[in-house]
Amino acid sequence: MNILVCIKQVPGTNKVEVDEETGVLKRDGVSSKMNPYDLYAIETALRIREKTGGTITAVTMGPSQAQDVIKEAYMMGVDEGYIFSDRRFAGADVLATSYTLSMGIRAIGEFDLILCGKQTTDGDTGQVGPALAEYLEIPHVIWVKGIEEVDENSITVEQDMADCTAIVRLSYPCLITVDKDIAQPRLPSYKKKLKTRNRPVKIMSFDDFADKNEDNYGLSGSATKVERIFPPDSNDDHIMFEGTGEKLSREIYDILVKNKIV
Amino acid sequence: MLSINHNRCDLCGECIKACPFGALTIKDERVEISAACRMCRICLKKCPNKALLAADGIRKTADKSNWKGVLVFAEHMEGRIHPVTLELIGKANELGAKIDHPVYCIFIGHGITEKARELLNYGVDKIFVYDHEEFACFREDLYSNAFEDCIKKSKPSIVLVGATAVGRSLAPRLSTRFRTGLTADCTVLDVKENSDLIQIRPAFGGNIMAQIVTESSRPQFATVRYKVMEKARFIDNFSEKLTASEISEKIEICRLPGSKMKSKIEILKVMPKEKEVSISDAEIIVAGGRGFKDKKDLEMLEEMASLLGGQTAVTRPLVEAGWAPYTKQIGLSGRTVRPRLIITCGISGAVQFTACMNTSECIIAINNDKNAPIFQAAHYGFIGDLYEILPLLCDEIRKREIRNAV
Ligand SMILES: Cc1cc2nc3c(=O)[nH]c(=O)nc-3n(C[C@H](O)[C@H](O)[C@H](O)COP(=O)(O)OP(=O)(O)OC[C@H]3O[C@@H](n4cnc5c(N)ncnc54)[C@H](O)[C@@H]3O)c2cc1C
Description:
The structure holds 2 protein chains of 2 kinds. By secondary structure, chain A is of the alpha/beta class. Chain A is built from 6 helices and 15 strands. Chain A has helices spanning 36-52, 67-76, 94-108, 128-136, 190-196, 245-258, and strands at 2-6, 9-11, 17-18, 25-26, 32-34, 55-61, 80-84, 113-117, 140-150, 154-160, 164-171, 174-178, 202-204, 224-230, 239-242. In chain A, strands 11-10-9-12-8-1-6-7-13 form a 9-stranded mixed β-sheet, with helices on both faces. A two-stranded antiparallel sheet of chain A has the order 2-5. In chain A, helix 2 (67-76) packs across helix 5 (190-196) and helix 3 (94-108) crosses helix 4. Chain B is α/β, with parallel strands linked by helices. Chain B folds into 3 domains: 2-54, Alpha-Beta Plaits (2-Layer Sandwich), CATH 3.30.70; 64-261, HUPs (Rossmann fold, 3-Layer(aba) Sandwich), CATH 3.40.50; 280-405, Rossmann fold, CATH 3.40.50. In chain B, the strands form 6 sheets. A 7-stranded parallel β-sheet of chain B has the order 11-15-10-5-8-9-16, sandwiched between helices. Chain B has a 5-stranded parallel β-sheet with strand order 19-18-20-21-22. The termini of chain B are far apart. The interface between A and B is large, with 99 and 106 residues. The complex binds flavin-adenine dinucleotide. Flavin-adenine dinucleotide (FAD) sits between chains B (204-205, 289-291, 315-317, 329-334, 346-348, 350, 352-353, 366-369, 372, 385-387) and A (14, 16, 121-122, 124).
């Protein structure tokens, strides 16, 4: 079975800077890590491989330092990894990001099952998985919180639907996005680190992709545009209180009484 | 446009034999495509290595005058309309009135046709109903086909979808199918005269808001969470007064061809979840942040909430630390809340938090840093130590309870 996992490098802290001109995230110079949700996607892939055999390929799109997340995936047990890196991919929105991923994946080969994290901690929208499935013309299920059954032809998953849980069967090829709690991700192992030290991360760029129209990638391939960015609204008529704990708690209490809360 | 993945091509020549237009040749050990290609796609099927593909990733530049209307995805649970739908209709009515566009709903399910009338009472001009037993459970592929059909029929300029489990699955699928833009979790929506949707949401990361537009493609997709927009006004008895012919004009029963009703997704079982009281529905919330130094200190928060008859909630770092379940998280990657009262304790007020609670009726903030941005969002700001204030405040309320009981 051929399993593919899409992973992303995200800023290590919450302090992210935004370019005032373009509204695009500035990612240079901040520490970074693998998107935490993607660890669950990798763990799920590893557990599926234990049952069905096969290979796991991890892919990421980003600047060349994003290779680190592929290396980390190797240390967890992933077999092969690619990074799609090209300055022409920069500034992509959902549409352009998922398109780039689909082009890269199509250049690599055929996959039975594609796994993504539920969302990222920097972009946070969780839209790339379904959009990628659309480009690859395969069905998808989001918010998978458990794998019920898996064999050579299909996968049965437990899907979180907010007010209910659904047990859903999909035949391959298909894409799922996985939630936390699906399985505790294993830690990268030192032994695997030594073993995979020389395993290359394959680099693919625009030139390796079938679609050679630059306008389909990056900022120019994006349908949405950040028109302006501005500080959040502030509430103008706020009242501030200072003083001792006794005074302040008394004043809060009075507000609660005035508003008929107590 | 036809493209080739050269690294998957083994020069077998099948595509060249198959091409009816002689558009493919081998040159320098590479298959080349000439201008004779008519995009008939016959070669795609013949290629044993799937090296050929029709690349049409490009977003489409639309003639805006061909796209008119605001389409709302009407979500429901076995016919019970999800409240976010009414909030989206409220927003759609406002946007539609501004640019003189009609408001549509798409309603997909099984045995729901009668229910569609209910939506007319909220000012919707037309409802497209897809009622079929195959639609009984949400399946992304069939629902997407219905949604696509509806968009092709109605050609709306704007499509609004609730940011629910179903909406988050459908919206990116559809926006990609139409090669257009999607903006998630908008907190403010407005529209320009040229029908461009102004979409405002916290910028990805950073303590800042972004205004996003889908300038050249249509339709424009946006998702909005529950509790962000105002509910549409209910017009009493509106649908009852309509004649049968008026109703049939306003409710269009739609069918998909058999080829579009084949699903690759099988729902084996649906299990209801134990209904938890969601913080989104709470009237009173006491929220804690990293100002709490230890997990067990959150007991103060619990106590405060139970004295006020409300619920507790937290910021993301506390969920990440495992101090509280994800369902308790307010914010961009958690839930949006709009209670009568929220008291924030030891919360700095990052935009990813405030954007999802700043429409609350009364906001009281407790923080020991007078420069904390939470004070910009609060109605009443208290500069002080939560470890001092909370216990005293709890005592104060308890005393009153005793007084009242006597
Ligand atoms: C894409 C993205 C999505 C995000 N989504 C969310 C989200 O959904 N929800 C969310 O909450 N965050 C989210 N964040 C994180 C957000 O940016 C902030 O980091 C987070 O909200 C900060 O939480 P906090 O206020 O609890 O902690 P801090 O920012 O550390 O603030 C703690 C505050 O407590 C005060 N304090 C300390 N001790 C005391 C005391 N004894 N008494 C009184 N006050 C005290 C301090 O002055 C400080 O202001 C997101 C970030 C990103 C980039």
